[in-house]
Structure formats: structure tokens, C-alpha cells
Amino acid sequence: MAVIVLGHKNPDTDTVTAAIAVADLLTKRGVEAKAITQGAINPETDYVLKKFGVAAPAVQTSVEGAKVALVDTTELTQLPDDLAKAEILYVYDHHKLGDVTTSGPLEMWVWPVGCTGTVVKNAYDFYGIEIPKAIAGIMLCAILSDTVMFKSPTCTECDKKAVEALAKIAGVTDYMAIGLEMFKVKSAVDGTPIRDLVFRDYKDFNMSGKKVGIGQLEVVDLSILEPIKAQLLEECKKVKGEEGGRHSVFLLLTDIMKEGSEMLIVSDDPKIVDKAFSVTVTGSSVWLPKVMSRKKQVVPNFEKAFA
To answer: What is the pLDDT of residue 257?
Structure first.
């Protein structure tokens, strides 16, 4: 039975490429493995996979009875509902430890870096396994995406070194040009359903017993989203009431050039934003200068505020 390699719901480029790379790495270590996603890939990921000629993994939402490897998350709210009926053997991640538990020992790679791709690149090196050219290409794109082309506060020297090394393997001479193309694709919202935009990079979190949804849209210029901002807010209100209800839904509209985010707020207690970010919210949104990382600058602040 092949080990199933998967990441979080609403898959982004890091989750998808990490799953593909880990499946390759495990297979070359003598462990049969296959990558899956829990949902359809987004336009940026589609661009990256097609650029390097890599097929998208199949969509699968159940893992009952399977042996699994988790990438890019250890949060139960972001994983299959029947994960408890599977056996977790591997974890490759760059976030805080979530609430996943295991019945036996496992191989675990969790590093404080900007992208799971950086962790996986170093795992290839550790085992002395050559990274295929195409997989090196999609991994470097994932690192550029997750670190917002090295602008995110989550970015480390380890991420930058990984991109340099992966670019050589992939035969990429100007990786920043590829990064800019990726963000242009990510910024294209015309014709995309509003709900798809809200869920393009969305995760639910358990914060002191309260279900909190946090999404993020990264664009090269925030003015791109201005015509649809009201629609995004209305969709967030709908999402808040779904699946038994959420305490809050927050959507970060991140301007990668201005290096900040406007946060749309739908909450039972909007003052939680004041507490988390030392700001005064008077409406349904607030500008947060220099805030670009959900992982490092938003989730920890809210966890402390909810606690």
C-alpha cells in the first residue's frame, strides 16, 4: 500500500509541490508513495506545474485505513475528517505544531523556515538523493510564493540558499522573474467567483475552543481588489455562518509592493482585532502595515488575544 502524501485543505503552491516532492523522495528511499490534494489547485499552482511540466495530483478527501505523510500542516481543522482512522508516518512542515497526535513514532521534519519546500530540499540532501529538474523548479516557486519573493518576515537565509541551489538544478537563470510572473497570475481576479477568491488561501484554526477562519489574497497592487472588496466581505459573512458557525472570519488583502495587508473583519467580537494588533477598528476593515505573513504575524497574535 502506497503512503498517501497530502497537505491542507484549499491547497496552495507549497502544499501541492511539497506533496509531489515528498512522494518522490519517499519512493526513492524505497517507500512507495503518491501525492494527493484535498481540493482543486489554484491558478498560481496551475501556472507553476505547467511551467515545469509536472502533473497535478489527484483530488482525494478520505484517508481511512491509509498510511500517510503530512506536509505543510499538523492542524486537524485543515486535514481529512477521517484522519484518525489513518496511520501518520511522516511530517514535513514549517508551521507551529498543531493538534495532530499519533499512536506510534514517526519521522518528523518541522523547521522554522519560510516554506515546506525548504525543509524538503534539505531532506533530499540529508538522504543523498538527487532532486529531479522539474521538481526542483516547482519547489523553488513554492519558496518564492511562501516567502513573497523573500519579503515575508518568515523568510530565512536557509530559504534563500535553497532557492539558489534549486534554481541551478532546474536550469533557471532568473528566478525572480518567475516569481513576479507567479504573483501576476495570483493577482488576476477577473472572472473568478468571489467564493473561490475567499478560499484561495484559507485555513480554519481552533483558538481556545473557538473556530476562526483566516484567508489571504496576495496581489501586486491592492487597487486590483478595490472593485470587489464589498463582495469579498459579504462572502466572508456567509462563510462565518457555515459548518456549524465560526466565531470569526478574517481575510487578509496583502499588497506585496507596499508590504502590508488590509484585513476584512467578520467577528462575534471585532475588538479581538484591537487586542491582537494594538489598533482601533472602527469599521469592517483595518490596514496593518508590514503585516504579510499569516503564519508569523497573524495567527500567533490572534491566539494570544483569544487566550
So the answer is: 86
